[in-house]
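User: Sequence recovery, please. Input:
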């Protein structure tokens, strides 16, 4: 997996370049997924150990931040920043005062040395011109077992991404399984912009399949997203 960099048409009058750099991400790692990685890494800590350490770190981090301190970690610093306006110089600051925009936000400033090292390690994949209406497929997993890039005939496959929503009553839209021939999923448990849960057609033969989502945001033009990896159907 890699960081996807594509060209986005520029409509800003303040910039004279035709295109802007647009970034796309390979996947999202949730809290549980990160804990699994920590537990399966090159250490002897277990998943409960990792959970306890992270929760303790966040507890102490919150205490320090709420006390007005800047917390410096090896990879960067966390701090709170207040914003808003005053009518008088001695006016109290009241968090949540919408009339004056009083707010407090959590900020993170990365360690520049670590940031540069991370940038040098990053694998970049050059994408095509970015289409704001086109769907993006990021991840596929079995809806029942959660196993990545696998599914069973008749079971459901959970797809994650962006702008995936489509009209499932239209025969030309939906989720398709490609392996020499095309097979459209006829049943859908969920169809939202970020998640589609589609049945794996029972008639599929076991094998490797390319998964494609076809949408039509404006009701006329066809937009297509293809999952980069093949999905194993058993």
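Assistant: Recovered sequence (234 residues):
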């Amino acid at each position: 997996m890699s960081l996807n960099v594509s060209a986005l048409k520029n409509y800003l009058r303040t910039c004279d370049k035709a295109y802007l750099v647009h970034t796309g991400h390979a996947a999202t790692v949730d809290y549980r997924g990160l804990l699994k990685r920590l537990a399966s890494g090159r250490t002897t800590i277990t998943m409960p150990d990792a959970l306890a350490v992270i929760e303790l770190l966040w507890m102490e981090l919150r205490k320090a931040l709420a006390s007005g301190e800047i917390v410096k970690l090896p990879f960067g610093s966390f701090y709170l920043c207040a914003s808003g306006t005053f009518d008088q110089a001695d006016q109290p600051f009241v968090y949540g005062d919408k009339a004056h925009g009083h707010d407090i936000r959590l900020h993170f400033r990365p360690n520049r040395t670590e940031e540069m090292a991370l940038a040098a390690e990053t694998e970049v994949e050059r994408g095509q011109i970015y289409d704001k209406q086109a769907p993006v497929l990021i991840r596929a997993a079995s809806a029942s077992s959660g196993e990545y890039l696998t599914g069973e005939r008749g079971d459901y496959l959970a797809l994650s991404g962006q702008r995936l929503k489509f009209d499932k009553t239209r025969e030309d839209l939906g989720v398709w399984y490609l392996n020499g021939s095309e097979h459209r999923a006829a049943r859908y448990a969920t169809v939202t912009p970020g998640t589609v849960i589609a049945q794996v057609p029972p008639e599929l033969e076991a094998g490797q399949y390319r998964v494609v989502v076809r949408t039509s945001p404006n009701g006329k033009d066809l937009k297509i997203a293809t999952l980069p990896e093949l999905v194993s159907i058993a």
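The CA atoms of residues 57 and 156 lie 38 Å apart.
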